[in-house]
Design brief:
The chain is α+β, with helices and mostly antiparallel strands. About 30% of the residues lie in helices and about 25% in strands. The longest helix is centred in the last third of the chain and has 21 residues, at about 220-240. Bound molecules: coenzyme A. The site of coenzyme A has 21 residues, from helix 2, helix 6, helix 7 and strand 12.
């Protein structure tokens, strides 16, 4: 089914404070050399007192401004996150309140790092049903609130940030680009490879309990690495094939910014030359659901994505979940 979905505006926002590899050397037994050689990450932005919705709000204002729309023009707010301000209410309801609007549809998406791409597909479905929709899709994460700062194998990987996109159907106005297609997938059999085991109904909090390490991110890194590369590459080929494209047609590949080695391995598996692969992981670390919209917004802003470019987005995250999107600017 062909649906006309336009990207009207993109925006991103990261907190001011930077946590460098040298700062991490003072917290855990690690080194700048280990982190950069294994992950390509040098810095990440981290919050001091801002919340997920604070970052989402700033990114949303920028995306709305680029779109030339007021918050009240929106019909739906979708926030992808697993680090919302509170378990209840949703981050999207809090964001709506912050934007000073009401009586819009609001929902959060739980697909970890793939959440923004899942959000794009959800927006496409809403636009197919209601072509007049104007939808804000946000990825916003405070990963540092769920990191075990004593676990050196995970705490060096993550950062905080938010990115947002405003999507519409055909409205006769100018647009940044077009969302041609999205494909999403998951495999729950691998759920414990990247998980926060505690804090849900399977392992609830009890009043007065100590907060143990099961309430923070745990990951089987090598296993996740392998699945990430394999699934991002295969779903990318799938979305391209649906439109008769091959990887030769791709002008810019925007992969989930998890790790430079994963980014390079995906590019290589798709035979997309390194100069066409966008990466900002060295400055932001892995910001989960915020990673793709931050990368798209920044790539557009600095001219790494130009008018006429065919952009392939691919993502991977806890669940396990993965997906790809095809954009034409
Ligand atoms: N500093 C120094 N040493 C560290 C370290 C750190 N921050 N973290 C782990 N190590 C050590 C380990 O303890 C291990 O030591 P040992 O050999 O004495 O046991 C050694 O480094 C190698 O660990 P290993 O897990 O084999 O490293 P790796 O090459 O697989 O790299 C990751 C680890 C996490 C960087 C890598 O597996 C990865 O990128 N996985 C995917 C992670 C990801 O992006 N997840 C999110 C997807 S959304």
């Amino acid at each position: 089914m062909s649906i006309n979905v336009h990207i009207k505006g993109l925006g991103h926002h990261v907190p001011e404070k930077i946590l460098s590899n040298q700062d991490l050397e003072k917290i855990v037994d690690t080194s700048d050399e280990w982190i950069t050689s294994r992950t390509g990450i040098s810095n990440r932005h981290i919050v001091e007192d801002e919340t997920c919705v604070d970052l989402a709000y700033e990114a949303s204002l920028k995306a709305l401004k680029k779109a030339g729309l007021e918050a009240d023009d929106l019909t739906h707010i979708i926030v992808a996150t697993f680090t919302g301000d509170r378990p209840l209410p949703s981050a999207s309801c809090l964001l709506m309140e912050r934007l000073g609007i009401k009586q819009k549809a609001a929902m959060d998406i739980a697909a970890a790092c793939s959440g923004f791409v899942y959000g794009l597909e959800t927006a496409r479905a809403f636009i197919a049903l209601h072509p007049e929709s104007k939808i804000l899709v946000v990825g916003s994460e405070i990963l540092t609130s769920r990191v075990n700062w004593k676990d050196r194998s995970t705490c060096v990987l993550f950062g905080d940030g938010a990115g947002a996109a405003v999507l519409t159907g055909d409205d006769g106005a100018e647009h940044d680009g077009k969302l041609l297609d999205v494909v999403i997938s998951a495999d729950g059999a691998l759920s414990m490879a990247l998980a926060i085991k505690g804090g849900g109904s399977a392992l609830p909090y009890h009043l007065g309990d100590n907060v143990g390490e099961e309430y923070f991110i745990e990951m089987r890194g090598r296993e996740v690495f392998k699945h990430a590369v394999r699934n991002m590459a295969s779903i990318s080929k799938e979305v391209l094939a649906r439109h008769g494209y091959t990887t030769d047609d791709v002008d810019v590949l925007v992969p989930h910014q998890a790790n430079q080695r994963i980014i390079e391995a995906v590019g290589k598996k798709l035979s997309i030359p390194v100069e066409k692969v966008f990466s900002n992981v060295s400055r932001f670390g892995n910001t989960s659901a915020a990673s793709i919209p931050i990368a798209l917004s920044e790539a557009k802003e600095i001219g790494a994505i130009k008018e006429g470019d065919l952009v392939l987005v691919t993502t991977f995250g806890g669940g396990l979940t993965w997906g790809s999107a095809l954009l034409q600017f």
